Structures are given as structure tokens and as C-alpha cells.
UniProtKB/TrEMBL annotation:
Domain HTH lysR-type: 2-59
Name recorded for this polypeptide: LysR family transcriptional regulator
Keywords of this entry: DNA-binding, Transcription, Transcription regulation
Similarity field: Belongs to the LysR transcriptional regulatory family.
InterPro entries: LysR-type_TF_proteobact-type, LysR_HTH_N, LysR_subst-bd, WH-like_DNA-bd_sf, WH_DNA-bd_sf
Domain of life: Bacteria
Length: 304
């Protein structure tokens, strides 16, 4: 079988006229060059050189093939140069924006492998409460929840429904039980907060269920609420894509159907083809969809 690496030795001997000179040029021994030429001749089925006292001379068949070998060598060099250029392009800063709970509970565990795959990319992860405008270049990639239109120039991939519902810890459930009805919810302690945007929707929902007076603590972030739930302090709303992966958390009631929110991984059309941005989006989409499939399989197993 033909070994393409042997073409280097073929060209070295053809250009320099001896295995000794080719070996010096290629920084290998004369014996190695002679052995690789012999292997190449065996692979093609005919001699490529005549061995003379003055050195190696191409046979007529060798003369016919030497230019083809140069074309292969040129193509291989061009491939290597293109690969190096691509590697240099997949470097630099990529700014990702999302809510803190997704940054810490979802993306955080994935970033080590992202670094291992693309060590020349520097990730700036923004988990502030402020909305970052992709069109204005305030971030390169966003993992966000959206209803319908993503915004002008924003493009992305839908990951699935952005379900949020109530969770408690296993310790809390062992002490107080798991509420599954509206009446049962009124006998339990709730943790409020989660940040201004989340709290607006969350507090309205609690008010609708007449649970305002059941809130015993406010946390400034959703990660704070998760910490309080883990401690067994009470019940709070969390995103299913994060909480359902936590072995210590129990979903109290199913997520509300028909809410219309979807989770999207998005960027702006002006940077979508930038190699470093594309590399990060492709990686995150691969990992996030695998995470979602794992949760679907876990739910199916628990329901069986």
C-alpha cells in the first residue's frame, strides 16, 4: 500500500541524486531513505531509480511520475498552510452572554472541554442582569429565552422549550412532603427573588396563586434561590434544563404548557461566519443538545 510520506523521500533523491544527500536534507539516515524508496517502488510495482556509481538516476517511469509527486507535495503543503491559517483564525476573544443560572449551572461545566478543543480562544462569560445587544457588538453569542422574533440580524438555533417550574430538595421533601396541588402549595415555604426580570414574572405567578405571604426569603439571583433550595429552606422556581439535572432536586409540579418561551443559542449575522465564533457556537450546540437529550431520556426512564 502506498505511503504518501514516501513521496518526500522520492523527491529528495530525485532532486539531490543520492540517498545520502536526501537523508541530510530530510534529517534522517541514509538507510531510512533507501528503505523508504524501496517501499515506494514495491508499492507502485516498478523501479523509480537506476542505482549508478555516481548516484541515483530516475528511470523513465520515475521521470513520468516526478512531476505528479511535486503536485502532491505542493497540495500537501497548501493543506498544511490552510490548516495553520484556520488554527490562527480560531483564536481570540468570544463574548457569551446569558443569565447567571445558565452560565453557572449549564455552560460552566462545558467550558473546560471547550478550552481543550480550542485553547487559543478566550471566553468572556457575561452573566449580568443587563440585556446585551448582539447587533451593537456588546456580545458575540447569547444563550437566551425568547418569544417568537429574535430581533433584527440575530440568527441562531432553537434548543427547545424554556420550561421553569417549582423545585425542592430531597431533604425538604422528606420533612415536608412534595406539594402537587394548589391547596398543598399554600402550606409550604417559598424562596423569592431571582433578579428583577425573573421576579416580575415569578411574583405575579405567586400572587395569582395567593402565595405572597408564603415567601420567607428573597435572593438577588436564581443561583441564590437554587442554593437556598439545596439547603432545604423552601421551594422556588428554577429552569428545568438546569434543575432536572440536579440529583438532589425534585420537581414539584410539571412546567406550565403553552407558555411560548424557547431557549435559543444565537449570534448576529455580521459575526456568524467568524471562525472563532462559529467554533464556539458549534461546540455549545453539540453539548447543549446532548444535555437536553440526556434529560429527556432521564424523564422517560422515571415515567416508565
Amino acid at each position: 500500500m502506498l505511503d504518501w510520506n514516501d513521496l518526500r523521500y522520492f523527491l529528495g533523491v530525485a532532486d539531490l541524486g543520492s540517498t545520502l544527500a536526501a537523508g541530510k536534507a530530510l534529517r534522517v539516515s541514509q538507510t531510512t531513505v533507501a528503505r523508504r524508496i524501496a517501499a515506494l517502488e514495491e508499492a507502485v510495482g516498478f523501479p523509480l531509480f537506476e542505482k549508478r556509481q555516481a548516484g541515483y538516476a530516475l528511470t523513465p517511469a520515475g521521470e513520468e511520475l516526478v512531476e505528479r509527486a511535486r503536485q502532491v507535495d505542493a497540495a500537501a503543503n497548501a493543506f498544511a498552510e490552510a490548516a495553520d491559517a484556520e488554527k490562527r483564525a480560531v483564536s481570540g476573544i468570544v463574548r457569551i452572554t446569558t443569565q447567571e443560572i445558565f452560565a453557572v449551572g449549564l455552560l460552566g461545566p462545558m467550558l473546560r472541554e471547550l478550552h481543550e478543543r480550542h485553547p487559543d480562544i478566550l471566553i468572556e462569560l457575561d452573566d449580568s442582569q443587563n440585556f446585551r445587544d448582539l447587533g451593537e457588538g456588546e456580545a458575540d453569542i447569547a444563550l437566551r429565552s425568547a418569544y417568537g422574533d429574535l430581533g433584527s440580524g440575530v440568527v441562531g438555533r432553537r434548543l427547545g422549550d424554556d420550561d421553569w417550574t417549582l423545585y425542592c430538595s430531597r431533604d425538604y421533601a422528606a420533612q415536608h412532603g412534595v406539594p402537587t396541588t394548589r391547596a398543598q402549595l399554600k402550606t409550604h415555604a417559598f424562596i423569592g427573588g431571582g433578579g428583577p426580570k425573573l421576579w416580575r414574572a415569578y411574583s405575579a405567578w405567586l400572587h395569582e396563586l395567593d402565595l405572597d405571604d408564603r415567601v420567607i426569603m428573597h435572593h438577588a439571583s436564581a443561583m441564590g434561590m437554587m442554593s437556598a433550595i439545596r439547603s432545604g429552606l423552601g421551594i422556588a422556581v428554577l429552569p428545568a434544563i438546569v434543575a432536572d439535572a440536579e440529583q438532589d432536586l425534585i420537581q414539584c409540579v410539571p412546567p406550565k404548557a403553552g407558555h411560548g418561551r424557547s431557549m435559543w443559542l444565537v449570534t448576529h449575522e455580521r459575526v456568524r461566519h467568524t471562525p472563532r465564533v462559529r467554533a464556539v457556537i458549534d461546540f455549545l450546540y453539540e453539548k447543549l443538545t446532548a444535555h437536553i437529550r440526556m434529560l429527556e431520556e432521564k424523564r422517560a426512564a422515571e415515567a416508565a
